[in-house]
Design goal:
Blueprint lengths: L2 E12 L2 E12 L3 E5 L6 H8 L7 E6 L8 H4 L2 E5 L10 H11 L5 H11 L12 H14 L4 E5 L7 H17 L3 E5 L3 H4 L5 E6 L2 E7 H5 L2 E7 H8 L4 E7 L2 E7 L4 H10 L2 E4 L2 H12 L15
Length: 304
């Protein structure tokens, strides 16, 4: 694979706050990444530095082998769409799309028109008068229709309802298949995007704690369920990242792929092994890394 982004020792400090702490990773060409983590973990800061909208305190960033700062050639090959995107007060969606079409050399007006229809966007209403969902749709249209070689989506679709988000996911995957490029998707809706992303980057408290292929991540943990005493006997000596109990029944999440011998032992003990969703694994891993209590309740549907 060819790396399009190379990050080495990236650190960003805001006075007393260490937002990004000595982070190193690479982003490969034509791959969909999930950049995942809690609010304030450092995701937006990392993306802002990669797209030259922020400055690193120290470390080295290379995009297409070059420093992206004040590098028009590199910046024209990237698109950064964020939830808090600002537009001029009198701008309308048609203005935003026109400017984008002039900036991005791979712009597809055909795709833009299709998405405008899909999201039923009012083209002549001022952007500041749009609903949150419509504002999110403007960002999605630009991010997809730009067909930039690297596209960052920093949760610009949170204002979309479930139907509109599914349209976004479907159109992104469909166009990515026809026109491969690198996509970095930052999201709290982990279960929704888990089938889209090919590689997972999890950032927690400014540090990368997971950088793996999505399929490998799904196989790296299991929920062991059954009689509490039998469960505790089975998990003894294993890495435990979560515990829940109700009466005499426990569910314990352990890290590691279960072997055939493990499964035979589970059957003999009357225990069950359940899968751990990508969202559960990331929530529990970040809780564990942050020193959260094993008794912490599970988050509801999204990673906050």
């Amino acid at each position: 694979m060819t790396a399009v982004i190379e990050v080495e020792g990236l650190t960003k400090r805001y006075r007393e706050t260490l937002a990004v702490d000595d982070v190193s990773f690479t982003i490969e060409k034509d791959t969909i990444y999930g950049l995942l983590g809690r609010n304030g973990a450092g995701k937006t800061t990392v993306m802002s530095i990669l797209t030259a909208q922020n400055f690193a305190t120290r470390g080295d960033v290379r995009v297409f082998g070059e420093n992206p700062y004040e590098n028009a050639k590199v910046l024209a090959r990237m698109c950064f769409v964020r939830e808090s995107q600002k537009y001029p007060d009198d701008a309308k969606p048609r203005h935003a799309f026109k400017i984008a079409s002039l900036f991005f050399p791979n712009w597809s007006q055909e795709l833009a028109d299709r998405l405008i229809q899909d999201f039923q966007l009012p083209m002549n209403r001022r952007i500041k008068k749009l609903s949150r969902g419509q504002l999110s749709a403007v960002g999605v249209v630009i991010g997809l229709a730009s067909r930039a070689e690297i596209t960052f989506f920093d949760e610009p679709y949170l204002g979309l309802d479930a139907v509109a988000r599914q349209i976004f996911y479907d159109r992104m995957l469909e166009d990515y298949t026809a026109h491969p490029r690198t996509v970095i998707l930052s999201s709290h809706l982990i279960d929704e995007v888990s089938n889209l992303i090919e590689r997972v980057l999890v950032i927690d408290r400014g540090r990368i704690i997971m950088d793996e292929e999505t399929d490998a991540v799904r196989d790296r943990a299991a929920n062991i369920i059954g009689d509490s005493a039998a469960v505790e006997a089975f998990v003894k000596g294993r890495e435990v990242i979560h515990r829940e109990s109700l009466g005499r029944v426990s569910s314990v999440t352990v890290v590691g792929t279960l072997t055939s011998a493990d499964r035979e032992q589970l059957t003999a003990a009357g225990l069950e092994a359940g899968p751990v969703s990508l969202q559960q694994l990331i929530v529990r891993t970040t809780q564990h890394a942050g020193g959260a209590s094993d008794a912490s309740p599970l988050e509801e549907g999204v990673l906050r």
